[in-house]
Amino acid sequence: xxxxxxxxxxxxxxxxxxxxxxxxxxxxxxxxxxxxxxxxxxxxxxxxxxxxxxxxxxxxxxxxxxxxxxxxxxxxxxxxxxxxxxxxxxxxxxxxxxxxxxxxxxxxxxxxxxxxxxxxxxxxxxxxxxxxxxxxxxxxxxxxxxxxxxxxxxxxxxxxxxxxxxxxxxxxxxxxxxxxxxxxxxxxxxxxxx
Length: 194
Hints:
By secondary structure, the chain is mainly beta. The chain has one domain (3-35, 45-193): Lipoxygenase-1, CATH 2.60.60. The protein is 6% helix and 45% strand. The protein has a six-stranded mixed β-sheet, with no helix packed on it. β6 (51-58) and β7 form a beta hairpin. The protein starts with a strand and ends with a helix. The model has no long low-confidence stretch (mean pLDDT 85).
């Protein structure tokens, strides 16, 4: 059973996957736009909100080495792949996914920070049912889930950090609110959080 993470919580993904052998994870992001009332309160409509999942790879000195996002769907070394941009949040399940082949992540990468930002500029008060989750890529077992539906006027969130520590892949649910339309805008906040 997946762990429902709280802000700041750290877990061992390796242990949650049953020990050794965790070689691939999928970070899934899902969301829905809040429905708004129509004219004179009649009917309702759903606006389109383009949330973007991204990740940045950092070395031990907190220097960014690479990024995976809607404009670069794979890391230069090929260890991380983004499955593509969902511009509306429509549909059930994961709206965007980032697949990490842990066995291919270069040894100089000390942390991978996952973020979500509203490319269209809406803030999180206009979003509901937002979550990120980590799935074992080998068997589709959900290892951890983090609810992102915290309303507020922020346009981005530092979701989580995945890192290797003493031979185990671990995850830290950061959960810090931020502002910015792309991962570049969030770089100072990411560096401060890791």
